[in-house]
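Below sits the subject:

***
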Amino acid sequence: MLDYRCWILDLCAPTLRSSIAHRVSCVWRQVMISLQVFYEGNVQGVGFRWSVRHVAKGFDVTGWVRNLPDGRVELQVNGEENELRAFLDRVAESELHSLIHRQTENKLGNPVAARGFEIRYD
């Protein structure tokens, strides 16, 4: 998690910038989330999982991707919300874009158990 000094204090009215306020440092609270995403379309047999794993290498996310028997691809991923959203946007904007006809997203209550980002074959 990143630690940011509270730059907001310098923007506040001078009365709020007391000596005590200057000694306060803030931690920009980053919200970690876990998502399950289903991709529908021409997403199996085209290198979809490999491409998603390749995109994940450029982001600070953990999780996995796998094919489902019904022809969809399931992705489960953890990360800081902004990083995770950027990752999902990159997947949607990649060469995979034309293969995805529908994307469904669910928030998960528990973190996804994974080290790094992997392709699952179960």
In short: The chain has two domains: 1-30, 32-119. The two ends are 32 Å apart (CA to CA).
